[in-house]
Each structure stands twice: as C-alpha cells, then as structure tokens.
Amino acid sequence: MEINLQGKNALVCGSTKGIGFAIAKQLAACGAQVTLMARNRDILEKVVKDLSAENGQKHDFLVADFSKPEAVKAAIQEKVNAPQVYHILVNNSGGPSPGPLLKAREEEFLMAFNSHLLSSHILVQQLADGMRHSGYGRIINIISTSVKLPLKGLGVSNTIRAAVGNWAKTLANELGPHGITVNNVLPGATATDRLTQIIEGKAMKTNTSPEDVSHEMLEEIPLNRFAKPEEIAYAVSFLASEYAAYINGINVPVDGGRTGNL
Fold first, then answer.
1. Which pTM value belongs to this model?
2. Domain range spanning residue 237?
3. Is 85 in contact with 35 (CB distance < 8 Å)?
4. What is the mean pLDDT of the chain?
C-alpha cells in the first residue's frame, strides 16, 4: 500500500516541532503541499524548508496563536479568500499544563478551550466548503488517550480533550454526507518536549529522579517504550489518504497498548 497525496493541500497546526512537525513532514513526503500553522514566525521560516518538495510542492506557513481564536480566523481567511482549497486539516496544539483538577484556575480552562476547541472549530468552518466542492475532505484531530480514559494529573487536559472528542464525533455525523471524514488520533506517551516536561515536573513534585518516573511510565506500556513522533504521523497519513475513505468518526489510539480499555 503506497499512500499518495499528490495534488492535495494540507493545513497542519502546531507544526514547528514534536508530533505536529512529524505529521507535516510525513504528509509532504507522501506528496501533499503543506501549510504549517503556528505562532512563531522565525521558527516557521526555518522548518518549512525541511519539508520534502520532491513532487514540486510549494510549502508555506501561517502565523497564528491558537489561544487567540480571532487571530486564527484572520490568518486562515487570508488563504481561503485567495482562494486556497485545503483537502486535509490536522488540528493539533500543545497540551494544557499538568496539575490536579481542583487546583486549576478558570483562565487555564478558557485558554485550553480556545486553543483546542474554538480554534479548531473556526478552521473547520472556514475549510469545509472547499473540501465539499473539491470532493475530498479529511479532518484529523490530534487529541489524547484521555478521551478514552482520563490520565492522572492532567485535569484540565482530560476535561477539554473530552469536549474536543465529542465535537469531532458530532462533526463526523454532519459532514459525512458531504464525503468529509472526521477522525481523532490519540497519541500515548510520545518522545517530545512535552513528555520531558511532564516527566521532570512529576519528578520534582515526588522528589524522585526523571529516570525513575520514566521507568514507572514505561512499565504501563506493553511495548515498553515511548512512541516516536513519526509513528503518530504514520497513522495520520493513512487517515488522510484515499484508503481511509470509509473510516469516519473514530478514535485511533497510538499508545503501544497503554490505554486500559477497548
């Protein structure tokens, strides 16, 4: 099975590092023309050059802070009014700060809601018509395994991720008749800067070493290792392809078997 995304335009959010960048690289390697979207222009200008252009693609980027939905709307409207049709949308944003739910401040919920749900919703609203008219639409949301089973110490994240999961399922039902699929990829513990921050934060709070925390986390994973960012990207590229045309409204855990339910 060879995934060929030539002729497809993809918008990948949160795509300057970690899982988001791995997804952008993989989609470009499959032939898609990619628009990166993140808040740091300097980094965007550097990493966009690292995307494969073997099929003559002209990759570009948009600058927007996902905690500010109106800025996201203004950025994407520039493209849509160009006009630019996007066949693939990957919603991805850095996770909320860890911590117990009872200690979470109101502004933490609002920021997470803006970044993970409202900004994603705005992008779907702006791009759905183009997908429908083009006859091809793939919306893929990078969420978390906490959609299926809340994770200890990630109170705000557990709350907001569940909202995004239900939003996505509702969209799948509404957009399915137009040939647009909406699916969620749920990464488990993945070797990114965020995982390092979580491990170091937990080590500090429990007065243990990061190595001990890592070992404890690995014991919960049947494959006994953390995911590589590109392994998340492989799942996304499949869902973005023609082979996944009849897959709609599902959650795909990519977690090495860690999640303790079906």
1. 0.96
2. 9-188+228-254
3. no
4. 96
- Tell me the per-residue pLDDT of 183-215, one tens digit each, with 9 for 90 and over: 999 999 999 998 998 899 889 989 999 999 999
**Residue 196 located in a structural domain:** no
Domain membership flag for residue 2: no
CATH code where residue 104 lies = 3.40.50.720
Residue 262 in any domain: the answer is no
The three-state (H, E, C) secondary structure of the chain, written as one string: CCCCCCCCEEEEECCCCHHHHHHHHHHHHCCCEEEEEECCHHHHHHHHHHCCCCCCCCCEEEECCCCCHHHHHHHHHHHHCCCCCCCEEEECCCCCCCECHHHCCHHHHHHHHHHHHHHHHHHHHHHHHHHHHHCCEEEEEECCHHHCCCCCCEHHHHHHHHHHHHHHHHHHHHHHHHCEEEEEEEECCECCHHHHHHHHHHHHHHCCCHHHHHHHHHCCCCCCCCECHHHHHHHHHHHCCHHHCCCCCCEEEECCCCCCCC
Residue 141: inside a domain, yes or no?
A: yes
**What are the phi and psi torsion angles at 63 (to 5°)?**
-105, 120
Q: How many domains does the chain have?
A: 1
For residue 232, the number of C-alpha atoms closer than 13 Å in the C-beta half-sphere is 31
**Do residues 8 and 236 lie in contact, with contact meaning Cβ atoms separated by under 8 Å?**
no
